[in-house]
Each structure stands twice: as structure tokens, then as C-alpha cells.
Amino acid sequence: SAPVPFSVSNISADSRLQRSTAGPAQIDIHQGFRVASIAADIPVESMSLMLDFNEVHTEVIRSYYRMMEAVQNAMTRTSQVSADSFDQYSEEIVMILAQNSLVFNSRLEANAFSGDHSLDLGIDWRGLPDVSDLDSIEAMQILEVLGLNLNLSLDAAAIARSPLADMVDPYVQQGYLRIENGRILMDMTLSDAQLTVNGETVSLEQFL
């Protein structure tokens, strides 16, 4: 089959790494990526993505580089990576992330189907410093130290022209989406194990 015509222009990116105000052993990482013009047989005309990882403990970075070094050394010697070695480093990284705080924020903007859309996501992980076994972590423990904010805003007229058109009304009827001033909106928050969607409390039991 013939290749799909695809071209992009006005691409920009930026990144920052700096010491976090949360403590001397933590860093903040920022990544941004923008494509101002997309010409292709897809309905997306432009997009931008912003990612912020804050309060990242430097030990996570050290563990990651130790794992990459071990992988590189193993491949140099045998062309194969030990699954046990990889699992050990992966578990070490996950354990550090589980025990310590981490704040993540992202924003995705796109023009698709001739309309502007955005998604904002914020995650505030307060950490489980007393955990020593990942398998012992229960769902309620996670929910008690996890904060989440999600804000979705879509151009209603654009979505009506898209393959997603038939999916909107059922979610509006269920209260997960609302329509205001030509926008399809959803606001979701999770705080202290309480989930709220568009101002209404939602039981978490159905998800556990």
C-alpha cells in the first residue's frame, strides 16, 4: 500500500531540570512539545503536550541509570539481558516511587475535527514511606495518599463531526460528561479516597 501523506511544521520543544523546593534530594523535570501544523490524512491539525514531574527523588534517577548500565553491560557480554536482573532494578525503582512523594501535571491541547480540545491531568502522590513489600499494598492505602484532578474540555461541534459523536449522550445521561456553552466538559477529583465527578460524589466500590 502507498505511504500515508504526512507532514508537520513549526515543531518546538523545551525541557528543564532543576532542584525541587520540596527538598535537597528531589528534582523537578519539565518537558514540552508542540506541533503547530499537521498536514495528513488524519483529523488532527495541531497539538501540544506539557509534562511536569515534580519532587522526583534523585535515587529514582540513580536506580534508572544503574539499570540501564546493567542492561548495556549484559548485552555487551552476552547479547542477552537477565530477566531477574531487570526485574530487580525495576522493583527497586517502583519501591522508591511508592515510598516517596511525587507530583505530576500534564496538559494536552489539540485541534481536531476543526475544533480546539484540551485535557489537564494532575496527580499528587504523597507516598507510603512505611511500605517494604509491594505485594502488601492494598487499594485503599493507595487511594488515601493519592490525589487526582482531571479536566476535559472538548469542542462539541467538532466531536459531533467525529466517530465519537454517538458516545457523548450516554455519558451525559450517566453524569460523567456535561455540555455547557458549546463545550463537552468533565471535571474529576480524587482526594482522601473520595471521588467526585462534575460535582457529584461517585462510589469507589464499583472500581475496587
Give the CA-based shape. Answer: globular
Judged by helices, strands and strand pairing, the structural class is alpha+beta
Q: Beta-sheet strand percentage? A: over 45%
Largest sheet: 10 strands, antiparallel
In DSSP terms (H or I, runs of 4 or more residues), the helix count works out at 5
List the secondary-structure elements in sequence, H or E.
EEEHHEEHEHHEEEE
Helix-residue proportion: 25-40%
What is the end-to-end distance? Answer: 45 Å
Radius of gyration in whole Å, from Cα?
A: 21 Å
Blueprint (SSEs and pairs):
Elements: E1 6-19, E2 26-40, E3 44-57, H1 58-78, H2 83-99, E4 102-112, E5 115-125, H3 139-144, E6 146-155, H4 156-160, H5 165-174, E7 178-180, E8 183-191, E9 194-197, E10 200-202
Antiparallel strand pairs: 1-2, 2-3, 3-4, 4-5, 5-6, 6-8, 7-8, 8-9, 9-10
Helix pairs in contact: 1-2
Notable characteristics:
208 residues; alpha+beta; ten-stranded antiparallel β-sheet; 5 helices; 45% strand
